[in-house]
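Researcher: Good morning. I'm working through a list of sequences from a screen, and I'd like to move beyond sequence-only analysis. For each chain I'm collecting a predicted structure so we can compare shapes side by side. This is the next one on the list. No need for commentary yet; just the structure.
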Amino acid sequence: MADREISGEIAISVQELDVTYRTTFEKRPTLKQAVVRLGRGKRSVKTVEALKDVTFDVSRGSVLGIVGHNGAGKSTLMRAIAGIVPPTRGRIEVVGRTSTLLSLGVGFNRSLTGRENVILGGLAAGLTKDELEDRYELIAEFADIGDFIDAPMSTYSSGMGARLAFSVAVHLDPDILLIDEALSTGDAVFKEKATQRMQELVNNSSTMLLISHALRTIINMSTECIWLDHGKLMMRGNPEEVVDAYTEYVHVKKTSATMNDM
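Model: Good morning. Structure tokens for this chain:
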């Protein structure tokens, strides 16, 4: 990303963050156990330490890229910052209005139309009806799903839902934008348009946290990068240096394929 002015003001502060949760799973029974239990497995409880003592600050106007393998804790970190997942230990401070694009379409009611979901999403984000009226056409035009805007979202393809969700998130004029794999769906034209819109937000001093397996996107868009591994913060610094360290750690060569989807 080209050099840009970054405020010394802190937009996000994460201090000594732990997130631990319990999940249940069913063990596959042996033949003998299956006979005794009439084929039913045994449910077990597992404690997952998703984040362990993670500390960092994000300056206003910066773009923080987050890399790591699946299960490293990236999405849990985003959800904790968004206030969806409570910290087990530590604290998170967020200053400003946040727009969250974690799993595309999460929060949408699929029985409602796209138009109705745009209105509900805007109101939930704190926009007034007048503000919604001013932005609705921009949102609909950017999503570019035509007459489907008035159809139930249950009729949408995954790509259409993703386009509408992204369009809503980036037109709320957020102080902080949290994006988790927003560009993993959609065609090349939409991805280019989405990238340009994110760049506009950043140029207007929005703060952004970006998760992407497309490491080239992380390098091109981020002003700083962190690398998570099994819930631990491994490295923080220049995006290209962090990506280099990460790819070396996982023993993957930096090819066009790995840089675009890893």
